[in-house]
Amino acid sequence: MAAARPRQLDIAKLAGVSQTTVSLALNGKTADYGINPETEQKIMDAARELGYVPNVTARALRGGRNRLIGVHAFEPLFPTGRESYYEEILVGIEQGAVRAGHDLVLFTSIHQHTGQANIFHEGRNRLRIADGAIILGFEQHDDELVRLADEGYRFVFVGRRERAATLGPYVSAEYAAAVRDVMSRVHALGHREVAYLGLRDRAEPRLERREGFRAGAAELGMAVVAETWAGAGEVEASWIRQVMDGGATVLLVESTGVLEEVAERVDELGVDIPGDLSVVGLDSITDPSAASHDWTHLLVPRREMGARAVELLLDVLDGRQEPTHHERLNCTFRPGGTLGAPAPGV
Amino acid sequence: MAAARPRQLDIAKLAGVSQTTVSLALNGKTADYGINPETEQKIMDAARELGYVPNVTARALRGGRNRLIGVHAFEPLFPTGRESYYEEILVGIEQGAVRAGHDLVLFTSIHQHTGQANIFHEGRNRLRIADGAIILGFEQHDDELVRLADEGYRFVFVGRRERAATLGPYVSAEYAAAVRDVMSRVHALGHREVAYLGLRDRAEPRLERREGFRAGAAELGMAVVAETWAGAGEVEASWIRQVMDGGATVLLVESTGVLEEVAERVDELGVDIPGDLSVVGLDSITDPSAASHDWTHLLVPRREMGARAVELLLDVLDGRQEPTHHERLNCTFRPGGTLGAPAPGV
DNA sequence: TCAACAATCTAATTCAAATTAGTAAGGCGA
DNA sequence: TCGCCTTACTAATTTGAATTAGATTGTTGA
């Protein structure tokens, strides 16, 4: 049991050379240092014979880097409910890490005891374990992030940019332009009166969508019949009735969860989509097979955002990119069956 | 900007002591070595002031602990499809890690280039960065695991036990007993003729279920009308018809995916569940709201398995548990609406 | 008053690999 | 035959933390 792992020194003894020479040979630097090809061969043979495997830890210690990328969220990463906001982003981060040959560290320890996660829990910054980190989540802990940045720690944000812009690089989606694009498609089909149903929260991605909506309505000369906020379980049939009575022929819905609630209420009213009312979702649909309709909606490139965040972090760490760089990825319009021309009678 | 990471030596200088003393103070060994409480306080203050965090790499090199738990799978952890086998287990692992105050390292780097993941890929064993690892997945890489174990590396398996038993501790579910329990419930309701629909693969958890099924049938004197294997998309209505004609009044289905296919075929046949045929699932249902029926089925405690694996790993690392220990968690029977008494006419 | 001892702390070493600064041996020109 | 340059290597150092083996100072009992 527990046969000691062979070290470079063991190879050196077997080949009758020094540890230095072994290191040089194994790293292909024989030419630079004029190592005899025969010696090199002896070393390689000895290494193979002993089943040598470099010790990552020693290598990392010397090199100053771990090849560890931290992933930090202020909430648990794998929530118990379905429809994890992070899920797709995590898939992207994993793919990015695979490509870059790095491992991921999920900072779970800091969630301990308190429901809240503090980076500087007990006065230590665990994030430092990793070479740099990707920060997810909407919750605001700006003071901690400022301190992190002050300490020279490198990180990249995904999905938000409020304070991020002043603190470090970020990757997010171009929500405003995407929604403006939706508006012009809607306009092109003949719609002139539109309603908007958003979430009650004021997270940046939502605010930007609203910005795009208003800008689009203004530019295209469309009338905003209603702009209303609802939480989960709060969509009311009477509101939809009212909006339609008000002349709206199309409804933009910010969140996918609310979208399904809208479908239920519309069903209750006996209204036809898109015959009586067109409905467009402004977010990705994680599981289209579970959706009630073939929704017309936007695709937010969450997976690409995750993958790009990894690349960006490594670029910053390697000095290939200044730490103020940011990137915005485009959303795609997915045509479905819930956007049509407005009913001619209206 | 980019202030170099503080080392113990920096703390030592600030506090006016040696690096040794700093190390002792930070590791709570002041009592053993008679360090003055005032000195200790000075050191702690200096450490906080500098924002000191131990260097994982140096510690790992020395053989120390890092409060890092590795998670290794031979396949990507976050698969692109829905219905991730790992998902629930990962949730459990995360919860376990949170409770234990440890962080998780997801070993993604080894998936690089080759679709296959080798621990000793490119001659480096990254696992050593973590204190120990939890190993998931069905794929067989026994030679690598044997080597890891020989090197004294500690790990715990989740969900399998074939070779695991000889290599280290494992946590898995008690499938056979659970299925036997299902059989006795079915028997108690009056069923005497039963059919079994399994997956085509021969993974351990499936083999155990079949074992439990056969043992139950034998003990209870029930007739096995059919025992058939199907892959995704291979369930045929004719098979169900045939099985029912053969007298089967209840069908046990190994996998949740196949369960839904069975529902579709049964619908096509105009057969009533459970009036004409009772159906029992032998696996968890991740998203009951997306299920076509209120299935009667087994709950595999995947989340507990993950959480328990973390505890077990730490027990082994701390020497509280011998490294041959294993644990089997019970599955729960979830009564639903798809198991009833057999039709009296039969 | 001196050895013994406790109380406090430190120098030196270790872990495995990478790198810097040399060294030894041989050849060649002047 | 002295000095200089190659060729082909090696000794020593570095990385950050933990540990082993001391070292220093002061106190106390005989």
Strand order of the largest sheet of chain A: 2-1-3-4-5-11
By CATH, the architecture of the largest domain in chain A is named: 3-Layer(aba) Sandwich
Q: Please tally the β strands of chain A and state the result.
A: 12
- Please write the CATH class name of the largest domain in chain A: Alpha Beta
Structural class of chain A: alpha/beta
Could you tell me the CATH topology label of the largest domain in chain A. Rossmann fold
Pfam families (chains A, B): LacI, Peripla_BP_3
Protein name (chains A, B): LacI family transcriptional regulator
Keywords (chains A, B): DNA-binding, Repressor, Transcription, Transcription regulation
Domain HTH lacI-type (chains A, B): 6-63
Describe the protein in words.
The structure is a homodimer of 346-residue chains. Chain A is an alpha/beta fold. Chain A folds into two domains: 68-173 and 303-330, Rossmann fold (3-Layer(aba) Sandwich), CATH 3.40.50; 175-300, Rossmann fold, CATH 3.40.50.2300. Chain A is 40% helix and 16% strand. The first copy, chain A, has 13 helices and twelve strands. In chain A, the strands form two sheets. In chain A, strands 2-1-3-4-5-11 form a six-stranded parallel β-sheet, covered by helices on one side. Chain A has a six-stranded mixed β-sheet with strand order 7-6-8-9-10-12. At the A-B interface, helix 5, helix 6 and strand 2 of A face helix 5, helix 6 and strand 2 of B. Strand 2 of chain A pairs antiparallel with strand 2 (103-106) of chain B, so a sheet runs across the interface. Chain A binds a DNA duplex (30 and 30 nucleotides) through helix 2 and helix 5.
